[in-house]
Automatic annotation (TrEMBL), chain A:
InterPro entries: Acyl_CoA_acyltransferase, Arg_succinylTrfase_AstA/AruG. The lineage of its organism: Bacteria, Pseudomonadati, Pseudomonadota, Betaproteobacteria, Neisseriales. SUPFAM superfamilies: Acyl-CoA N-acyltransferases (Nat). The keyword Lyase does not apply. Keywords: Transferase. This is Arginine N-succinyltransferase. One of its GO terms (molecular function) is arginine N-succinyltransferase activity. It comes from the Bacteria. GO terms for biological process: L-arginine catabolic process.
From TrEMBL, chain B:
It comes from Crenobacter caeni. This is Arginine N-succinyltransferase. One of its GO terms (molecular function) is arginine N-succinyltransferase activity. Keywords: Acyltransferase, Arginine metabolism, Transferase. One of its GO terms (biological process) is L-arginine catabolic process. The keyword Transferase applies. Pfam families: AstA (PF04958).
Length: 239, 340
Protein backbone atom coordinates (compact mmCIF):
# COMPACT_ATOMS: atom_id res chain seq x y z
CA UNK A 1 0.00 0.00 0.00
CA UNK A 2 1.14 3.48 -0.60
CA UNK A 3 -0.25 6.93 -0.01
CA UNK A 4 0.11 9.79 -2.43
CA UNK A 5 -1.45 13.13 -3.23
CA UNK A 6 -4.79 12.81 -5.02
CA UNK A 7 -5.05 13.97 -8.62
CA UNK A 8 -7.96 14.58 -10.99
CA UNK A 9 -7.77 10.99 -12.25
CA UNK A 10 -8.88 9.80 -8.80
CA UNK A 11 -12.21 11.62 -9.01
CA UNK A 12 -14.38 8.67 -10.10
CA UNK A 13 -12.77 6.22 -7.72
CA UNK A 14 -13.17 8.64 -4.83
CA UNK A 15 -16.80 9.24 -5.70
CA UNK A 16 -17.47 5.51 -5.65
CA UNK A 17 -15.45 4.80 -2.51
CA UNK A 18 -17.22 3.62 0.64
CA UNK A 19 -14.89 3.05 3.53
CA UNK A 20 -15.15 3.28 7.26
CA UNK A 21 -13.90 6.30 9.10
CA UNK A 22 -15.10 9.84 9.46
CA UNK A 23 -15.36 13.04 7.49
CA UNK A 24 -16.95 14.19 4.26
CA UNK A 25 -17.12 12.20 1.07
CA UNK A 26 -14.46 13.10 -1.47
CA UNK A 27 -16.87 15.00 -3.69
CA UNK A 28 -17.84 17.20 -0.79
CA UNK A 29 -14.22 17.57 0.18
CA UNK A 30 -13.34 18.66 -3.32
CA UNK A 31 -16.16 21.17 -3.31
CA UNK A 32 -15.31 22.62 0.10
CA UNK A 33 -11.56 22.37 -0.24
CA UNK A 34 -9.18 24.19 -2.45
CA UNK A 35 -5.67 25.32 -1.96
CA UNK A 36 -6.03 25.07 1.80
CA UNK A 37 -6.67 21.31 1.66
CA UNK A 38 -4.47 18.36 0.98
CA UNK A 39 -6.22 15.19 -0.09
CA UNK A 40 -4.14 12.05 0.24
CA UNK A 41 -5.25 8.77 -1.27
CA UNK A 42 -4.19 5.24 -0.45
CA UNK A 43 -3.71 2.62 -3.14
CA UNK A 44 -3.32 -1.09 -2.63
CA UNK A 45 -0.79 -3.23 -4.46
CA UNK A 46 -3.12 -3.42 -7.47
CA UNK A 47 -3.49 0.34 -7.64
CA UNK A 48 -7.05 0.23 -6.31
CA UNK A 49 -8.19 3.08 -4.06
CA UNK A 50 -8.08 1.83 -0.45
CA UNK A 51 -8.64 5.02 1.46
CA UNK A 52 -8.19 8.75 1.71
CA UNK A 53 -7.42 11.48 4.20
CA UNK A 54 -8.19 15.16 4.02
CA UNK A 55 -5.95 17.63 5.82
CA UNK A 56 -6.99 21.26 6.11
CA UNK A 57 -4.57 24.05 6.92
CA UNK A 58 -5.26 26.12 10.04
CA UNK A 59 -8.44 28.15 10.08
CA UNK A 60 -10.95 29.45 12.59
CA UNK A 61 -11.82 26.64 14.97
CA UNK A 62 -14.05 26.63 18.02
CA UNK A 63 -14.18 23.98 20.71
CA UNK A 64 -15.13 23.58 24.30
CA UNK A 65 -12.15 23.19 26.60
CA UNK A 66 -13.03 20.96 29.50
CA UNK A 67 -11.87 22.13 32.89
CA UNK A 68 -12.50 21.84 36.60
CA UNK A 69 -13.63 24.44 39.10
CA UNK A 70 -13.52 23.72 42.81
CA UNK A 71 -16.24 24.83 45.24
CA UNK A 72 -15.09 24.64 48.84
CA UNK A 73 -17.30 25.56 51.78
CA UNK A 74 -15.60 24.05 54.82
CA UNK A 75 -18.34 25.24 57.19
CA UNK A 76 -20.83 23.14 55.27
CA UNK A 77 -18.51 20.25 54.54
CA UNK A 78 -18.64 21.01 50.82
CA UNK A 79 -15.61 20.26 48.66
CA UNK A 80 -16.58 19.62 45.06
CA UNK A 81 -14.81 19.53 41.75
CA UNK A 82 -17.14 20.76 39.04
CA UNK A 83 -16.64 20.11 35.36
CA UNK A 84 -16.63 23.21 33.19
CA UNK A 85 -16.83 23.92 29.49
CA UNK A 86 -15.20 27.02 28.08
CA UNK A 87 -15.60 27.98 24.47
CA UNK A 88 -12.20 28.65 22.94
CA UNK A 89 -10.31 29.07 19.70
CA UNK A 90 -7.17 27.37 20.98
CA UNK A 91 -6.81 25.21 17.87
CA UNK A 92 -7.08 27.90 15.24
CA UNK A 93 -3.33 27.55 14.57
CA UNK A 94 -3.51 23.81 14.15
CA UNK A 95 -4.31 21.94 10.96
CA UNK A 96 -7.36 19.74 10.99
CA UNK A 97 -7.64 16.18 9.84
CA UNK A 98 -11.09 16.57 8.34
CA UNK A 99 -11.56 13.08 6.99
CA UNK A 100 -10.04 9.64 7.24
CA UNK A 101 -11.62 6.68 5.49
CA UNK A 102 -10.19 3.30 4.59
CA UNK A 103 -11.51 0.16 2.98
CA UNK A 104 -12.04 -3.08 4.85
CA UNK A 105 -12.44 -3.85 8.50
CA UNK A 106 -10.41 -5.03 11.45
CA UNK A 107 -6.64 -5.35 11.15
CA UNK A 108 -6.47 -4.62 7.42
CA UNK A 109 -8.36 -1.40 7.93
CA UNK A 110 -6.13 -0.47 10.84
CA UNK A 111 -3.06 -1.15 8.76
CA UNK A 112 -4.40 0.99 5.93
CA UNK A 113 -5.19 3.78 8.35
CA UNK A 114 -1.68 3.58 9.78
CA UNK A 115 -0.19 4.11 6.33
CA UNK A 116 -2.50 7.03 5.60
CA UNK A 117 -1.89 8.65 8.95
CA UNK A 118 1.84 8.24 8.49
CA UNK A 119 1.52 10.10 5.21
CA UNK A 120 -0.61 12.80 6.83
CA UNK A 121 1.92 13.32 9.58
CA UNK A 122 4.83 13.33 7.15
CA UNK A 123 3.03 15.93 5.04
CA UNK A 124 2.48 18.08 8.11
CA UNK A 125 6.14 17.76 9.11
CA UNK A 126 7.33 18.59 5.65
CA UNK A 127 5.07 21.62 5.32
CA UNK A 128 5.13 22.94 8.87
CA UNK A 129 4.79 26.51 7.70
CA UNK A 130 1.51 25.61 6.02
CA UNK A 131 0.02 23.27 8.57
CA UNK A 132 1.35 24.65 11.84
CA UNK A 133 2.92 22.77 14.70
CA UNK A 134 0.01 20.50 15.48
CA UNK A 135 -2.81 18.58 13.89
CA UNK A 136 -6.18 17.83 15.39
CA UNK A 137 -9.06 15.55 14.56
CA UNK A 138 -12.57 16.13 15.91
CA UNK A 139 -14.39 12.83 15.86
CA UNK A 140 -18.18 12.81 15.57
CA UNK A 141 -19.92 12.53 18.92
CA UNK A 142 -22.80 10.40 20.12
CA UNK A 143 -26.17 10.71 18.46
CA UNK A 144 -29.54 10.12 20.04
CA UNK A 145 -32.32 7.96 18.67
CA UNK A 146 -33.65 10.91 16.71
CA UNK A 147 -30.42 11.28 14.79
CA UNK A 148 -29.44 14.56 16.41
CA UNK A 149 -26.37 14.71 18.60
CA UNK A 150 -27.21 14.30 22.27
CA UNK A 151 -25.24 17.44 23.15
CA UNK A 152 -26.96 19.47 20.45
CA UNK A 153 -30.32 18.60 21.90
CA UNK A 154 -29.20 19.65 25.38
CA UNK A 155 -27.18 22.73 24.50
CA UNK A 156 -26.68 23.86 20.92
CA UNK A 157 -30.32 24.02 19.91
CA UNK A 158 -31.01 26.55 22.67
CA UNK A 159 -28.47 28.96 21.22
CA UNK A 160 -27.95 28.23 17.55
CA UNK A 161 -31.07 26.51 16.28
CA UNK A 162 -31.54 29.07 13.53
CA UNK A 163 -28.13 28.16 12.16
CA UNK A 164 -28.41 24.38 12.27
CA UNK A 165 -27.85 24.23 8.51
CA UNK A 166 -24.33 25.51 9.06
CA UNK A 167 -23.36 22.63 11.33
CA UNK A 168 -21.76 20.76 8.47
CA UNK A 169 -20.22 23.87 7.02
CA UNK A 170 -19.04 26.88 8.94
CA UNK A 171 -19.46 25.39 12.37
CA UNK A 172 -16.77 27.61 13.86
CA UNK A 173 -18.75 30.71 12.92
CA UNK A 174 -21.91 29.11 14.24
CA UNK A 175 -20.15 28.53 17.55
CA UNK A 176 -20.16 32.30 18.04
CA UNK A 177 -23.79 31.87 19.03
CA UNK A 178 -22.94 29.44 21.82
CA UNK A 179 -22.33 30.48 25.46
CA UNK A 180 -19.29 32.73 25.56
CA UNK A 181 -18.88 32.42 29.31
CA UNK A 182 -17.65 29.35 31.12
CA UNK A 183 -20.44 26.86 31.43
CA UNK A 184 -20.78 24.42 34.29
CA UNK A 185 -21.40 20.98 32.89
CA UNK A 186 -23.78 20.36 35.75
CA UNK A 187 -26.32 22.54 33.97
CA UNK A 188 -26.54 19.92 31.24
CA UNK A 189 -28.70 16.84 31.71
CA UNK A 190 -26.90 13.68 32.66
CA UNK A 191 -27.11 12.07 29.17
CA UNK A 192 -25.42 15.11 27.66
CA UNK A 193 -22.68 15.14 30.27
CA UNK A 194 -22.08 11.48 29.64
CA UNK A 195 -21.28 12.00 25.95
CA UNK A 196 -18.73 14.78 26.41
CA UNK A 197 -15.53 13.54 24.83
CA UNK A 198 -17.11 10.30 23.66
CA UNK A 199 -16.89 9.29 20.00
CA UNK A 200 -19.97 7.92 18.27
CA UNK A 201 -20.13 4.18 17.73
CA UNK A 202 -19.11 4.53 14.09
CA UNK A 203 -15.82 6.13 15.10
CA UNK A 204 -14.59 3.86 17.85
CA UNK A 205 -12.21 2.12 15.44
CA UNK A 206 -11.00 5.44 14.10
CA UNK A 207 -10.16 6.58 17.60
CA UNK A 208 -8.05 3.45 18.00
CA UNK A 209 -6.26 4.07 14.72
CA UNK A 210 -5.43 7.60 15.72
CA UNK A 211 -4.16 6.54 19.13
CA UNK A 212 -2.01 3.88 17.48
CA UNK A 213 -0.49 6.57 15.26
CA UNK A 214 0.45 8.66 18.29
CA UNK A 215 -2.53 10.97 18.47
CA UNK A 216 -3.49 11.86 22.02
CA UNK A 217 -6.73 12.57 23.77
CA UNK A 218 -7.20 16.23 24.72
CA UNK A 219 -9.36 18.43 26.92
CA UNK A 220 -11.15 19.74 23.84
CA UNK A 221 -14.52 18.55 22.59
CA UNK A 222 -16.66 19.54 19.65
CA UNK A 223 -19.02 22.30 20.84
CA UNK A 224 -22.01 20.89 19.01
CA UNK A 225 -21.86 17.12 19.39
CA UNK A 226 -19.32 16.75 22.20
CA UNK A 227 -17.12 14.45 20.15
CA UNK A 228 -13.50 14.08 21.27
CA UNK A 229 -10.65 16.08 19.80
CA UNK A 230 -7.38 14.20 19.34
CA UNK A 231 -4.07 16.00 18.92
CA UNK A 232 -0.84 15.16 17.18
CA UNK A 233 1.74 15.57 18.40
CA UNK A 234 0.66 16.04 21.98
CA UNK A 235 2.14 18.71 24.20
CA UNK A 236 1.37 22.32 24.96
CA UNK A 237 -1.70 24.24 24.09
CA UNK A 238 -2.56 25.13 20.55
CA UNK A 239 -0.52 28.27 20.61
CA UNK B 1 -54.73 44.03 70.97
CA UNK B 2 -51.72 43.15 68.86
CA UNK B 3 -48.77 45.39 69.59
CA UNK B 4 -45.67 45.74 67.45
CA UNK B 5 -42.59 46.38 69.56
CA UNK B 6 -38.84 45.75 69.59
CA UNK B 7 -37.76 42.29 70.61
CA UNK B 8 -36.12 41.87 74.01
CA UNK B 9 -33.94 39.24 75.57
CA UNK B 10 -36.97 37.88 77.41
CA UNK B 11 -38.59 37.02 74.07
CA UNK B 12 -35.92 34.51 73.08
CA UNK B 13 -37.89 31.36 73.83
CA UNK B 14 -41.02 32.62 72.10
CA UNK B 15 -39.09 33.90 69.09
CA UNK B 16 -37.28 30.59 68.85
CA UNK B 17 -40.64 28.83 68.81
CA UNK B 18 -41.90 31.14 66.05
CA UNK B 19 -38.71 30.61 64.08
CA UNK B 20 -39.23 26.89 64.24
CA UNK B 21 -42.63 27.35 62.59
CA UNK B 22 -41.33 29.63 59.84
CA UNK B 23 -40.63 28.35 56.32
CA UNK B 24 -37.06 27.22 55.73
CA UNK B 25 -36.59 30.02 53.23
CA UNK B 26 -36.74 32.68 55.93
CA UNK B 27 -32.99 32.41 56.29
CA UNK B 28 -32.66 34.99 59.01
CA UNK B 29 -34.86 32.91 61.28
CA UNK B 30 -33.02 29.66 60.63
CA UNK B 31 -30.06 28.59 62.64
CA UNK B 32 -29.55 27.90 66.30
CA UNK B 33 -31.08 29.42 69.40
CA UNK B 34 -27.70 31.00 70.09
CA UNK B 35 -27.82 32.66 66.70
CA UNK B 36 -31.26 34.07 67.49
CA UNK B 37 -30.03 35.29 70.87
CA UNK B 38 -27.22 37.11 69.12
CA UNK B 39 -29.71 38.61 66.71
CA UNK B 40 -31.77 39.90 69.64
CA UNK B 41 -28.69 41.40 71.28
CA UNK B 42 -27.82 43.13 68.00
CA UNK B 43 -31.29 44.66 67.84
CA UNK B 44 -31.24 45.86 71.43
CA UNK B 45 -27.83 47.38 70.88
CA UNK B 46 -28.92 49.12 67.69
CA UNK B 47 -31.98 50.61 69.36
CA UNK B 48 -29.99 51.79 72.35
CA UNK B 49 -27.43 53.58 70.21
CA UNK B 50 -27.55 57.18 69.10
CA UNK B 51 -27.31 56.39 65.40
CA UNK B 52 -26.49 59.31 63.12
CA UNK B 53 -25.45 57.26 60.10
CA UNK B 54 -26.59 53.81 59.22
CA UNK B 55 -24.19 50.94 59.39
CA UNK B 56 -24.32 47.38 60.63
CA UNK B 57 -27.45 47.81 62.75
CA UNK B 58 -29.96 45.00 62.64
CA UNK B 59 -33.40 45.54 64.13
CA UNK B 60 -35.82 42.84 65.16
CA UNK B 61 -39.41 43.36 66.22
CA UNK B 62 -42.18 41.15 67.47
CA UNK B 63 -45.96 41.23 67.35
CA UNK B 64 -47.40 40.61 70.79
CA UNK B 65 -50.93 39.97 71.90
CA UNK B 66 -50.99 42.23 74.94
CA UNK B 67 -53.92 40.35 76.41
CA UNK B 68 -52.27 36.96 76.47
CA UNK B 69 -48.64 38.06 76.27
CA UNK B 70 -48.06 35.58 73.44
CA UNK B 71 -46.06 36.47 70.39
CA UNK B 72 -47.86 36.27 67.05
CA UNK B 73 -45.08 37.23 64.69
CA UNK B 74 -41.58 38.46 64.16
CA UNK B 75 -40.06 40.82 61.61
CA UNK B 76 -36.78 42.59 61.14
CA UNK B 77 -34.99 45.18 59.12
CA UNK B 78 -31.26 45.55 58.55
CA UNK B 79 -29.95 49.07 58.14
CA UNK B 80 -27.64 47.89 55.38
CA UNK B 81 -28.36 44.80 53.34
CA UNK B 82 -24.69 44.27 52.70
CA UNK B 83 -22.76 45.85 55.53
CA UNK B 84 -20.82 42.90 56.90
CA UNK B 85 -21.15 40.81 53.79
CA UNK B 86 -22.44 41.57 50.30
CA UNK B 87 -26.13 41.06 49.70
CA UNK B 88 -26.11 38.54 46.89
CA UNK B 89 -28.88 38.03 44.40
CA UNK B 90 -29.27 37.24 40.72
CA UNK B 91 -29.91 40.00 38.24
CA UNK B 92 -31.90 39.16 35.13
CA UNK B 93 -29.78 40.16 32.16
CA UNK B 94 -29.86 39.62 28.43
CA UNK B 95 -26.78 38.74 26.41
CA UNK B 96 -26.63 39.15 22.69
CA UNK B 97 -24.70 36.55 20.72
CA UNK B 98 -24.07 37.06 17.05
CA UNK B 99 -22.15 35.60 14.17
CA UNK B 100 -21.36 38.37 11.75
CA UNK B 101 -20.17 36.02 9.04
CA UNK B 102 -23.39 34.00 9.15
CA UNK B 103 -25.59 37.01 9.67
CA UNK B 104 -27.19 35.38 12.71
CA UNK B 105 -27.82 36.66 16.18
CA UNK B 106 -29.81 35.72 19.22
CA UNK B 107 -30.56 37.09 22.64
CA UNK B 108 -30.09 34.89 25.65
CA UNK B 109 -31.62 35.34 29.09
CA UNK B 110 -28.98 34.95 31.78
CA UNK B 111 -28.78 35.34 35.54
CA UNK B 112 -25.80 37.27 36.84
CA UNK B 113 -24.74 37.01 40.46
CA UNK B 114 -24.48 40.53 41.82
CA UNK B 115 -24.54 42.60 44.96
CA UNK B 116 -26.12 45.67 43.43
CA UNK B 117 -28.50 46.01 46.37
CA UNK B 118 -25.96 45.86 49.17
CA UNK B 119 -26.40 49.56 49.98
CA UNK B 120 -30.15 49.29 50.47
CA UNK B 121 -31.82 48.51 53.77
CA UNK B 122 -33.22 45.00 53.96
CA UNK B 123 -36.48 43.68 55.33
CA UNK B 124 -35.79 40.36 57.03
CA UNK B 125 -37.12 37.67 59.29
CA UNK B 126 -40.79 38.17 58.47
CA UNK B 127 -43.04 35.52 59.89
CA UNK B 128 -46.63 36.08 60.95
CA UNK B 129 -47.98 33.16 62.91
CA UNK B 130 -51.52 31.83 62.59
CA UNK B 131 -52.70 34.12 65.37
CA UNK B 132 -51.74 37.29 63.53
CA UNK B 133 -54.32 37.15 60.76
CA UNK B 134 -54.17 39.41 57.74
CA UNK B 135 -54.52 42.56 59.83
CA UNK B 136 -51.73 41.50 62.14
CA UNK B 137 -49.50 40.60 59.22
CA UNK B 138 -50.04 44.05 57.77
CA UNK B 139 -49.16 45.68 61.09
CA UNK B 140 -46.10 43.44 61.43
CA UNK B 141 -44.84 44.26 57.97
CA UNK B 142 -45.63 47.95 57.67
CA UNK B 143 -44.83 49.04 61.22
CA UNK B 144 -41.18 48.37 60.37
CA UNK B 145 -41.49 50.90 57.62
CA UNK B 146 -43.19 53.39 59.91
CA UNK B 147 -40.15 52.97 62.15
CA UNK B 148 -38.03 53.80 59.08
CA UNK B 149 -40.16 56.87 58.46
CA UNK B 150 -39.58 58.06 62.00
CA UNK B 151 -35.84 57.37 61.97
CA UNK B 152 -34.68 57.96 58.39
CA UNK B 153 -31.08 58.56 59.39
CA UNK B 154 -30.89 54.93 60.45
CA UNK B 155 -31.82 53.57 57.02
CA UNK B 156 -31.10 53.84 53.32
CA UNK B 157 -33.32 55.58 50.82
CA UNK B 158 -34.17 52.23 49.29
CA UNK B 159 -35.52 49.20 51.10
CA UNK B 160 -35.42 45.72 49.57
CA UNK B 161 -37.10 42.49 50.50
CA UNK B 162 -36.30 39.04 49.14
CA UNK B 163 -39.60 37.22 48.97
CA UNK B 164 -39.81 33.48 49.47
CA UNK B 165 -39.83 31.66 46.19
CA UNK B 166 -41.85 28.67 45.17
CA UNK B 167 -41.17 25.45 47.01
CA UNK B 168 -42.77 22.06 46.70
CA UNK B 169 -43.64 19.46 49.28
CA UNK B 170 -40.71 18.49 51.44
CA UNK B 171 -39.03 21.88 51.15
CA UNK B 172 -37.92 21.18 47.61
CA UNK B 173 -37.05 24.27 45.61
CA UNK B 174 -37.12 23.70 41.84
CA UNK B 175 -34.87 26.71 41.38
CA UNK B 176 -32.30 25.56 43.90
CA UNK B 177 -32.31 22.07 42.45
CA UNK B 178 -31.44 23.48 39.05
CA UNK B 179 -28.88 26.07 40.21
CA UNK B 180 -27.53 25.81 43.73
CA UNK B 181 -27.46 22.04 43.80
CA UNK B 182 -25.25 22.07 40.70
CA UNK B 183 -22.63 24.00 42.62
CA UNK B 184 -22.92 22.62 46.10
CA UNK B 185 -24.57 19.22 45.86
CA UNK B 186 -26.82 19.80 48.88
CA UNK B 187 -30.57 20.17 49.03
CA UNK B 188 -32.40 23.43 49.58
CA UNK B 189 -33.31 22.89 53.22
CA UNK B 190 -29.72 22.09 54.08
CA UNK B 191 -28.52 25.17 52.22
CA UNK B 192 -30.91 27.39 54.17
CA UNK B 193 -29.83 25.77 57.41
CA UNK B 194 -26.18 26.44 56.62
CA UNK B 195 -26.94 30.06 55.71
CA UNK B 196 -29.12 30.57 58.77
CA UNK B 197 -26.23 29.51 60.95
CA UNK B 198 -23.34 31.14 59.12
CA UNK B 199 -24.82 33.81 56.88
CA UNK B 200 -25.68 33.70 53.21
CA UNK B 201 -22.21 34.72 52.13
CA UNK B 202 -20.96 31.27 53.05
CA UNK B 203 -22.63 29.79 49.99
CA UNK B 204 -23.43 32.81 47.84
CA UNK B 205 -19.82 33.93 47.66
CA UNK B 206 -18.94 30.53 46.26
CA UNK B 207 -21.42 30.80 43.44
CA UNK B 208 -19.53 31.38 40.19
CA UNK B 209 -19.37 34.87 38.76
CA UNK B 210 -20.14 33.63 35.27
CA UNK B 211 -23.68 34.21 34.03
CA UNK B 212 -26.10 31.32 34.27
CA UNK B 213 -27.81 30.60 30.96
CA UNK B 214 -31.49 30.38 31.73
CA UNK B 215 -32.38 28.14 28.75
CA UNK B 216 -30.24 25.44 30.36
CA UNK B 217 -32.20 25.44 33.62
CA UNK B 218 -34.93 22.90 34.15
CA UNK B 219 -38.36 23.88 32.93
CA UNK B 220 -39.67 23.83 36.48
CA UNK B 221 -36.89 26.18 37.59
CA UNK B 222 -37.63 28.60 34.77
CA UNK B 223 -41.30 28.57 35.70
CA UNK B 224 -40.69 29.64 39.30
CA UNK B 225 -38.12 32.36 38.62
CA UNK B 226 -39.45 35.58 40.08
CA UNK B 227 -42.57 33.84 41.41
CA UNK B 228 -43.72 34.26 44.99
CA UNK B 229 -44.18 31.16 47.10
CA UNK B 230 -47.59 30.53 48.59
CA UNK B 231 -46.27 31.09 52.11
CA UNK B 232 -45.10 34.56 51.15
CA UNK B 233 -48.18 35.63 49.24
CA UNK B 234 -49.67 37.70 52.04
CA UNK B 235 -46.36 39.41 52.77
CA UNK B 236 -45.87 40.09 49.09
CA UNK B 237 -49.33 41.59 48.70
CA UNK B 238 -48.78 43.86 51.68
CA UNK B 239 -45.48 45.20 50.38
CA UNK B 240 -46.71 45.47 46.80
CA UNK B 241 -49.71 47.38 48.03
CA UNK B 242 -47.41 49.68 49.93
CA UNK B 243 -45.55 50.58 46.76
CA UNK B 244 -42.76 48.04 46.54
CA UNK B 245 -41.94 47.01 43.01
CA UNK B 246 -40.57 43.95 41.29
CA UNK B 247 -37.44 44.83 39.38
CA UNK B 248 -34.71 42.76 37.77
CA UNK B 249 -33.56 40.82 40.80
CA UNK B 250 -34.36 37.40 42.16
CA UNK B 251 -33.15 35.50 45.18
CA UNK B 252 -30.03 33.45 44.56
CA UNK B 253 -31.33 30.46 46.46
CA UNK B 254 -35.02 29.91 45.69
CA UNK B 255 -35.52 32.34 42.78
CA UNK B 256 -38.18 34.38 44.58
CA UNK B 257 -38.53 38.02 43.57
CA UNK B 258 -36.55 40.75 45.29
CA UNK B 259 -38.81 43.76 45.85
CA UNK B 260 -37.51 47.31 45.91
CA UNK B 261 -39.16 50.26 47.55
CA UNK B 262 -38.03 53.88 47.60
CA UNK B 263 -38.66 55.34 51.02
CA UNK B 264 -39.79 58.55 49.37
CA UNK B 265 -42.46 56.68 47.45
CA UNK B 266 -43.80 54.04 49.83
CA UNK B 267 -47.18 54.68 51.31
CA UNK B 268 -46.10 53.67 54.81
CA UNK B 269 -43.17 56.07 54.81
CA UNK B 270 -44.23 58.86 52.49
CA UNK B 271 -47.93 58.99 53.33
CA UNK B 272 -47.81 58.44 57.06
CA UNK B 273 -48.02 61.65 59.09
CA UNK B 274 -47.40 62.65 62.69
CA UNK B 275 -50.13 64.23 64.76
CA UNK B 276 -50.54 65.16 68.37
CA UNK B 277 -52.73 62.59 70.00
CA UNK B 278 -55.92 63.22 71.91
CA UNK B 279 -57.38 60.64 74.25
CA UNK B 280 -60.91 59.51 73.68
CA UNK B 281 -62.94 57.11 71.66
CA UNK B 282 -62.84 58.23 67.97
CA UNK B 283 -66.06 59.29 66.34
CA UNK B 284 -65.52 57.30 63.12
CA UNK B 285 -64.77 53.67 62.57
CA UNK B 286 -61.71 54.09 60.39
CA UNK B 287 -58.73 51.96 61.33
CA UNK B 288 -55.21 53.32 61.29
CA UNK B 289 -51.74 52.00 61.80
CA UNK B 290 -50.44 54.05 64.70
CA UNK B 291 -46.87 54.24 65.98
CA UNK B 292 -45.13 56.26 68.61
CA UNK B 293 -41.92 58.07 67.77
CA UNK B 294 -39.65 56.13 70.09
CA UNK B 295 -36.71 53.88 69.33
CA UNK B 296 -36.15 51.28 72.05
CA UNK B 297 -39.66 52.14 73.21
CA UNK B 298 -41.16 51.97 69.74
CA UNK B 299 -44.70 50.67 69.64
CA UNK B 300 -47.23 50.32 66.86
CA UNK B 301 -50.82 49.12 66.81
CA UNK B 302 -53.77 48.95 64.51
CA UNK B 303 -56.71 50.83 66.00
CA UNK B 304 -59.58 53.16 65.25
CA UNK B 305 -58.71 56.83 65.22
CA UNK B 306 -60.12 60.07 63.86
CA UNK B 307 -58.68 63.42 62.95
CA UNK B 308 -60.32 66.16 64.93
CA UNK B 309 -59.14 69.76 64.97
CA UNK B 310 -55.58 68.93 64.08
CA UNK B 311 -55.30 66.12 66.59
CA UNK B 312 -55.69 62.41 66.22
CA UNK B 313 -58.22 61.02 68.63
CA UNK B 314 -57.26 57.53 69.82
CA UNK B 315 -58.94 55.22 72.31
CA UNK B 316 -57.52 54.51 75.72
CA UNK B 317 -56.45 50.95 74.98
CA UNK B 318 -54.43 52.04 71.97
CA UNK B 319 -52.96 54.97 73.88
CA UNK B 320 -51.85 52.60 76.59
CA UNK B 321 -50.42 50.10 74.11
CA UNK B 322 -48.54 52.90 72.41
CA UNK B 323 -47.32 54.18 75.77
CA UNK B 324 -48.50 57.65 74.83
CA UNK B 325 -49.90 60.45 76.90
CA UNK B 326 -52.25 63.24 75.87
CA UNK B 327 -50.57 65.56 73.35
CA UNK B 328 -47.71 63.23 72.48
CA UNK B 329 -46.92 62.74 68.83
CA UNK B 330 -48.11 59.69 66.96
CA UNK B 331 -47.28 58.57 63.43
CA UNK B 332 -50.43 57.47 61.67
CA UNK B 333 -51.36 55.79 58.43
CA UNK B 334 -54.94 55.07 57.40
CA UNK B 335 -55.49 51.36 56.77
CA UNK B 336 -56.69 50.15 53.41
CA UNK B 337 -55.71 53.38 51.77
CA UNK B 338 -54.61 53.89 48.26
CA UNK B 339 -52.41 50.88 47.94
CA UNK B 340 -52.34 49.31 44.55
Amino acid sequence: MQARLANPADRDALAAFHGQGFGPLPAEAARDGGAADVLLVLEDAQGVLAGYALLRSPSLAAHFRRGVSVRRVPLAGIDRKLATLTLCNDLCDAARLCALRVAGEGDPAAAAAAVLLGAVQETARREAARFGRRLYAALPGVQGADGDAVLWQALGRHFAAQGQAHLDGDAAALAELLPQHTLYAGFLPAPARAVLGVAGDACRDVQGWLHAAGWQASDYVDPFDGGPVLLWPDGGAGR
Amino acid sequence: MLVFRPVTEQDLAAVHALAAQSPVGVTSLQGSRARLAERIRQSESALAGDIRFRGEERYLFVLEDNDSGELAGVAGIDASAGFGEPFYCFRNDTLSHSSASLGLSNRVHVLTLCHDLSDASLLTAFYAGPGAGRAGAELLSLARLMFVAGHPQRFANTVVSAMLGVTEAGDVSPFWDSVGRVYFGIDYAEAERVCGEHGRRVLASQMPQQPIYVPLLSESAQLVMGEVGEEARVGYDILYGDGFEVEDYIDAFDGGPVLLGRVSALRSTAASRTWPVAAGEPETGDEWLLANTGTAGFRAVRARASLEAGMLRVGAAAMQALQLGEGAWVRALPCGGEGR
